[in-house]
Protein 1
Amino acid sequence: MNAILFSAIWGVLMMFCGAFVKSKAVPRYIALTGIVLLFAMNAMELNSGLPLFNIDPAEMLRTNSFNLSFLAIVFGATLFYFLLSGSEVEKVGEHVAEYFALMFFVLCGISLMATFNTLLILFIGVEIMSIPLYILTGSDKRNLKSNEASLKYFLMGCFSTGIMLMGITFIYGGNPNGSFYINNIPMGTGDMPVMIATGLIFLLVSMAFKVSAAPFHFWTPDVYDGAPTVFTSFMSTIVKAAGFFAFLRLFEQVFGVMHAQWQMLIVVITAATLLIGNLTAVFQQSVKRMLAYSSIAQAGFMLLALFALNDKAKEGILLYSAAYSLSTIGIFAVLLKMEDYTVDGFNGLAKKQPILALVATIFLLSLTGIPLTAGFQAKFYMLMAAVENGQQFWLVIFAVLMAAVSAYYYFRVIQAMYFKEPGTSSLVNSAGNSGFQALLVVLAILILVLGVYPEFLIGWMYHL
Amino acid sequence: MDIKAYIALSLVLFSIGMVGILMRRNAIIIFMCVELMLNAVNLLLVAFSKMHAVGEAAKALPTVASDAQIFVFFIMVVAAAEVSVGLAIIVMLYRNTHSIDVNFLNRLKN
């Protein structure tokens, strides 16, 4: 509750700041203050279970320690993102305060998606999250690639919204109680009524669009590649994790009882996503585009939570969101400092910028899932959830094989950094000040701590 | 009228919108097709609301039918917000390329 109110209020405040503050650096500090306050307020609610204001949401929202701890991860990752890449936002264009305002509105949408208790709030949350993203994607107005990405994202987003609404409508029509509340949609273990089944398939397709699962992933590489890099970092981490969280909550709470009937659909989508994401990432020359495909590949792992749908899966999705978001934000922060976004652009980075190369290596190892990093624990929890589920064991083996494939394209960057000679041109446009490098080291240490001691994060889920 | 007729009508409208999005190349026409999809949903929601209003559920809880009608208003509001953003994007594109043909957009493929 705190998060929804406060992020909306701070977004409006940032807009006023855009009108009255002429300086370019001030909006960043106001945004930083906002995200710190947002994190603190959410932590307070997670700690005590009580929101600051006693508003009756008429059961439309429901907060518990599961979704509050997810929001804590989201705000923590955004805090790191603002600290590391906030100064890059200033380079995109004139309207710095407005970009931050839009990001706070995205956070408001994410808060709604994390706490929804009726399909109406789910729809509104998804839209509040998506519409600012269309604008952020196109924020580099003179760049044709950015324009194209924005239009593509917008059309695909509208398309999937239409499909989602059709799904919600069919579920409403097939529900004898005539209700949108997710705990008031009666489900039996018997065969699904036709209308509910149609609704389920529509919802599945639209959510697969939102989280870019194959075969609905084709917009992702173009959009992530075309958008300004600093916003790609935001879209491919925090927003994607939020999409998965809403996906998991929707299918667990509404359709969880009849899991056996739609599990096969998820198996097909998961296997296709893992295969397509990993195999196409191998052939990419640009690191930015490789990270776009890697986000599809990581989505395949997160889909295992929907396949398993047990308590381990819920722990896994929290851990995966944290591990994936933090590592990707880190690697994008390094990428933003590079002159050349191709793999060859990283040649010999270790000789010229040893600290940047070291932290980038830790982030890439975490994305691959090497032990002692958070990424390993995240993948381990997902696979354990899938094994506990007890069906379709081949999917687990397939996921492990695909993780091995992913090592190829992540390690190629590490190899370029450590085992190749630097070219004559300068590698980085600026190595960042010492504060930036210290922050990267802190982020890397956090990833290592999560890799050794994941209970630190998961404990919060059972806090209340 | 039977509810099946409404379902068929809105599914036909929805499909026209969907096919239009996939087949047409003009950004404005694609945009209109999106609106057609959303309005097909609105029509079906109102039809279902009427269906529930005369059914068993409404006897227990009279507000059952109005929920879907309020949902329709939310869809209209959100569609308006989407239109304002979408038209801005199309205008931005037109300024740079002097065209709103989506075939023009293939720079990201390579």
Note: The interface with chain B takes residues 120, 123-124, 127, 131, 134-135, 138, 141-142, 144-145, 147-152, 154-155, 158-159, 161-162, 165-166, 168-169, 172-173, 176-180, 221-222, 225-226 of chain A (CB under 8 Å).
Protein 2
Amino acid sequence: MKLASYRKKSPWILHYNAGGCNGCDIEILACLGPKYDIERFGMINTGNPKQSDILLVTGPVTKRSRERLVEIYAQMPEPKVVISCGACASTGGVFRGMYNCEGGIDQYIPVDVYVCGCGTRPEQIIDGVVQALGILEKKTKELEESVRLKKEAVNEGKQLNRRNIADEIKPLLS
Amino acid sequence: MAKQYEIPIGAQHISLLEPLHFKFTTENEKIVNTEANVFYVHRGIEQACVTKFKFRQVSFVVGRVCGLCSISHSTAYSQVAEKLLKIDIPIRAKYLRMLVIELDRIHSHLLCLSHVAENSGFEALFMKTMQYREFSMELLEAVCGNRIQYDFAIVGGVSRDLKPEVGQTILKRLKTFMPQLEEIVDIFKTNWTLSLKNKGAGIINKEMVYRLNAVGPFARAAGVPIDVRNETEDLLPWKEVGFEVVTETSGDVYARNLVRLKELYVSIRIIENIINGLPESALITETKAFPEGEATVRLEAPRGELFYYAKGNKTQVLERLKIKAPTFSNVAAMRAAFEGNEYASAPAIIASYDPCLSCTAR
Amino acid sequence: MKKIETTLENLKKDIGAFYKEDLHHFMVMNAVETGDKMEIQWFFSDYAHPCETTCFFAMITPDEEVPSIKDIVLSSWVAEAELVDLMNIKIENTQKGFVLEPDFETGPLRKNK
């Protein structure tokens, strides 16, 4: 089975609310519904960070949810893309400067796509997700590219083999 | 005694829209004890309202407390500020506020119902309910200019007028929604698979509701007629537009679904009455006074009673603002209703509470 | 809104005499700072029509311990735990850490900390 080829076309999304007002979350839910239907891009909402490729975060990061946010991000496998949904996830929005808010998720995890608006419209979320698909593909290519191919070819005279190296370091070890 | 296991749900879980953490102590799959951690999204809005923002700006800030019932928050704040300013608002503004609150209630209840269906494992009904819900979002956009976060109620009145053609569109769309609603009601009432997950799950009885001071559809499903629209009429004339209180008796997930579905009929009737008899007047009462004294306001949000307390000191900035959200009252009862249920039905029970944690935590 | 003044000693007696489970509905607790003193308020409403809001209030100094009404009104523990964290006051049998993180600077709603 060519798992990679399926994965390229159907990224799974993970949704986490880091302290927002629910507004963007219900718009994400509306995106999953029949009218906007992001399942046509092969996406489904999954609850498991270990199976997901795109992380949708809403809300300014509150003090209690920041550790969970970083933990979820760390559990996701590479390559991964982070989308911040809404004004308060991107910059802190109206909550910027409140005592229990951190003001934007990009202080804790790297963000690839910023979606604006309070609250974001489903069309904007779809636009952001489609942009994220491009980024995901680019990141996948970077990961898959072999590092060895980029290195310069070794001259024949200078070529080493394992036995020679072992002979060289033997006196050093003893 | 069998061995006890502790199983957590949350803070991030597929069945939760918001960060919410429940720790269940289970014995042979039956829940015997629950611990709740509901303050993941505490942001500190109350403090910002009395330090950073002037009292006229606060009605936009408190709308951001919750995206689902933002109109209830901004209306309740506007009412409490009008009490402090000692002004009365024009009659048309009152009717328009009621119109948007009821439209908001339709979208909120349909979202909750679709969520219950999804968490009970009925994906097709989730899709169907979400599809039928879109009309209310489009109507709210036509009336207020935004799908969520309406910023419609401001101190002294409302910010926008209702155009007659928009009113006609609302009536037309409600007519097409009626057969769709009948269809959903039929599925929720008679579907056998759904009833296995919903009937008899998460029961709370009348005595417990009184003892634990629950509010909203959660309390009405147990047969307690708590509804602020039924109790006060000094600020918004609910009885005039045909409000009736809806109750059920069994108090389980099924009863909560039915209460929400029946309330949709009441909301539709109220909206039709408002549009057909919308009085003509100005939209806003201008005043140059400053808030003084203290006042309280109660309002029925989609999830239950919303309570605002405000104290002014004759300056631009309020001295104290206290917000009590409906789910805040329900936390104690939510814990009690889990007892004796199977762990597998916990997601459906959580969805049927319709918890709004961004309201609770502020 | 009907306001009834009470003291910390008489609080349990007053609320116990007033509160009937099937008549009154406990809403929330609140605290307002007025100068050096602090006003603690308990809000009740009733199920009758038209309904009336009743508010019990007591003036305290911030380091006094407020008695808990958990044994009269079962659901009041949520409001009490919230007030302890946000206003940094002491309430009988109530721990810190329900609303804010345990290492948080205490009493964000207090004006003169």
Note: Residues 2-91 of chain C form a domain with the Beta Polymerase; domain 2 fold (CATH 3.30.460.80).
